[in-house]
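Handoff note, outgoing to incoming analyst
You'll be picking up this chain. Sequence as last confirmed:
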Amino acid sequence: MLFSRVIMDLASFYKCLSDPTRLRIVSLLVEQGPLCVCDLQECLGEPQVKMSKHIGYMRKFGLLEMERKANWNFYRVASDLPPMVTAALQAFQEHRSAIEPFATDLETLRSTKRAACC
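Most recent structure output, in case you need it:
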């Protein structure tokens, strides 16, 4: 039974990353730690509704966790991911800097002022 759970976790993980916007979100969260929707929206140039839908999808499958601070929600990659998922994320991050738009996303996030609402 454990084998099928691991396969299901991996399948859910790869489904979460099958969308380019979700992959960009995860890349930023792995690299920069907790971010709010405002930060992600500004960095990726996408509407808040789209960011929220993608984040909700990834939370549903357990890839992201939320921390509430006052009126704002901050998201990060879940801390209790299976080792195979963690290894896949680490491998992606090692090669991410050479692939567009990931390098540009990280530079944009670092160069922009974090959202004033947070």
